[in-house]
Amino acid sequence: MKKIESTIETIVKDIEKFYVEKTWSFLTLNGVKLDAETTEIQWIFSKYAAMDEVVIFYIEVTQEQIIPSIVELIPSAIISQREIVDMFGIAVDGSSKGLYLDEDSEQMPLSNCGI
Amino acid sequence: MGKKTINIPLGSQHISLLEPVKFRFECENEKIIKVDSDVGFVHRGIEKACTTKFKYDTVGYVVARICGLCAITHSLCYTTAVENLLEGEVSQKVKYLRILLVELDRIHSHMLCLSHVCENAGFEAMFMQIMGDREYIMDLQEKITGNRIQFDYISIGGVNRDLSSELIKDIKKNLDIVKSKVDEYIDEFTNNWSLSLKFQGIGALSLEEAYSFNAIGPLARAAGLATDVRSESNYLPYDEVGYKMQMASDGDIYSRNMVRLNEILNSIQMCHNIVDGLPEGEIHTKLKGKPNGESLVRLEAPRGELMYYIKGDGKSMLNRVRIKTPTFASIPAFMEVFQGSNYADAPAILASFDPCISCTAK
Predict the structure, then answer these.
(1) Where are the alpha helices (DSSP H) in B70-164?
(2) What is the rounded CA–CA span in Å between residue B341 and residue B357?
(3) What residues are paired with A41 via a beta bridge?
């Protein structure tokens, strides 16, 4: 498992540079709380036909920041992006709330987990 | 005939899919032109419970309850992720026994899917027959683990029961019976009009779409995308037990059926190889320490890639348990397949996806 640090400003460009559709499979987005304010957001990829080759791009964001979307590059990312919005209460560009929760819900179930 | 646009819901309660998922189809006459989905009816908050209510050594039994069909794969994926962060290694015998249970899970799960495909084709007799034959595998699982579903067989450092020589005989006998049944199914699925011609070219996912939507599991392999975690991860010694990737190329319902049927045959062969060549050794190893750091493990569940990410800091409670389930990740691909299909085919297409909303609403 290889982790590559990025920033909220450059993450889409970094993934665009890295992602080759027939080489890498996008697995999911993940969020990990680091402290009350900060969350590590991860974009996880695995390589087709390679043994345990997993690459994780990650950035640190605060609750108020808006994570850019990668849906134009990877359409299947939409559902993971919506999950992050619901579970962590962090906005992702173009991804609406309401996958699991009600659209007007103020809950964010994983926003205080693990800290 | 003029074009008329109508909106038709499929689910959340529907005769063709007894699970709480809803698809909203916008149809132009019979053709589906737009799809929306809602998968969030029964979310259970298991990821949160795993980091707030349960210690790391009990979480494996919690995640086994995510799904009744692939309980073993869930508990094994989590347990392997934890074992990566502890000191010590499980025996080769344990790894073989774990593969045995994962493959039995795959056999009965694929049989369930195939039976539902028959039901959606109006072939009720075949549905009944496959569900009845599936009991041979369920019986084996009960004898090996003590439970028909939601088995607590996998534990950190090993498995909870060994195989007796009597049980090995039962396993071989039941597997032989199921193999002969599957040979008959293949004939039916290939030659019976209801299950072959009717499904050819229906609900197709192209190879390009499979790449574009990151398709996984039988959905991907039926479209010609050669991906299977059993060949892309070495946590379990699949190369020693006769694993062979099963592929098709047309990506339609027929291809998905054939991939699943061939995977059942390969799983039966692997189970035979495992019990014939079961290594000597302990079924449990005491592993030291508490999870400290990050670990990510992928396993091939019946519906495709299952992923667990865990993070611990040396305490009994984990900081994060992230579960990526196959059906959840495949929803965008499902929606792509529906688009352009006839509404009348939607229930059969959905059954051929083999969706598991229990996993999705984890």
Answers:
(1) 71-83, 92-120, 124-145
(2) 22
(3) A31, A59
Which tokens is A102 given?
């009600």
Asked whether residue B361 is domain-assigned, the answer is no
The residue among B140, B24, B80 whose CA lies nearest residue B308 is B80
> What's the domain range around A26?
2-92
Q: Write the CATH number for A18.
A: 3.30.460.80
Number of domains in chain A: 1
Q: Which of B54, B225, B311, B322 to mutate to test the interface with A (most CBs of A within 10 A)?
A: B322
Residue-wise pLDDT tens digits, B20-57:
888 889 999 889 999 988 888 888 889 999 999 999 99
Cβ distance B47 to A28 less than 8 Å, yes or no, reads no
Give the other-Cβ count within 10 Å of B167's Cβ: 15
CATH number at residue B350: 1.10.645.10
B248 lies in a domain? yes
Interchain contact B210–A (C-beta under 8 A):
no
Q: What is the mean pLDDT of chain B?
A: 92
- Measured between CA atoms, the residue of chain A closest to residue B49 is A113
Domain count, chain B: 1
ipTM of the complex as predicted: 0.95
In a domain, A99, yes or no: no
In a domain, B23, yes or no: no
Name the DSSP letter for residue A68: P
> How far is it, in rounded angstroms, from Cα A97 to Cα A92?
9
| Structural domain span for residue B170 | 45-335+342-355
B189-204: pLDDT as tens digits: 999 888 887 889 999 9
- Which residues does A contribute to its contact with B (CB < 8 Å)? 1, 21-22, 25-28, 30-33, 42, 44, 46-52, 54, 56, 74-76, 78-80, 86-87, 98-101, 109-110, 113-115
Cβ contacts (< 8 Å) between B213 and chain A: which residues?
Answer: 75-76
